[in-house]
Specification:
This protein is α/β, with parallel strands linked by helices. It is built from seven helices and six strands, in the order αβαβββαββαααα. α2 crosses α6, α4 packs across α5 and α5 packs across α7.
Length: about 200
């Protein structure tokens, strides 16, 4: 779970992972630009592809900070976003103990039932919109709502600036769908926590 102390840490290290063709690299770049240009914070962005550009493993590393970033590579992410099982298996062991895990629930199956995570059917939601390639934008909205690593307005502006002309409206709609889903997840957890507290009392 997210605690207040962790939420207000000055630096957040993030890894987004999946396979080529999902728009992982674009999502990472949008996230970095939202932090730097929208929220006026320091950010770095590193991309990595597997042996095949499309269908092979890929990842994006983003650091967001209020301070100067001296080293741009992420070894132990505070936030891990997985859109493929291969990516999950590769990076899950590197997460910080209190890190936040976000997954595409139809594509990733955590190995431990005790592991806490946030899930969203991002690819399925994108297919329902008629644009499977927008799963990355849906996941970005989900990430923004759940982690608040960047502001909503900064992320929306970065999405609008980064997608092809003629697709801005549908991409913002996809982003908002992911964001709404994330906010609903947080409200659900809050209600559950209150219910559990009440039961104890």
């Amino acid at each position: 779970m997210i605690n207040a102390q962790d939420e207000h840490r000055r630096t957040k290290e993030i890894i987004l992972t999946g396979f080529g063709g999902q728009g992982i690299i674009l999502a990472g770049r949008i996230l970095g630009e939202a932090a730097a240009l929208g929220d006026h914070r320091e950010s770095t962005f590193i991309q990595s592809y597997g042996p095949e550009s499309r269908g092979g493993a890929c990842s994006a590393q983003v650091i967001v900070s209020d301070d100067i970033i001296h080293y741009p590579y992420v070894k132990h992410p505070d936030i891990l976003i997985c859109m493929s099982q291969v990516g999950y298996e590769k990076f899950i062991g590197t997460m910080k103990p209190n890190g936040i895990l976000l997954i595409d629930q139809d594509l990733v199956h955590p190995r431990s039932k005790k592991q806490d995570f946030f899930s969203i059917p991002a690819t399925r939601m994108a297919e329902e919109l008629g644009h499977k390639m927008m799963a990355n934008i849906i996941m970005l909205g989900f990430l923004t709502a759940v982690t608040k690593v960047v502001s909503l307005s900064a992320a929306q502006k970065a999405v609008s600036k980064s997608v092809p002309e003629g697709t801005k409206e549908i991409n913002i709609h996809a982003f908002n769908r992911g964001c709404d889903y994330g906010q609903a997840k947080l409200k659900g957890r809050a209600k559950k926590a209150i219910g559990q507290t009440g039961a104890i009392l």
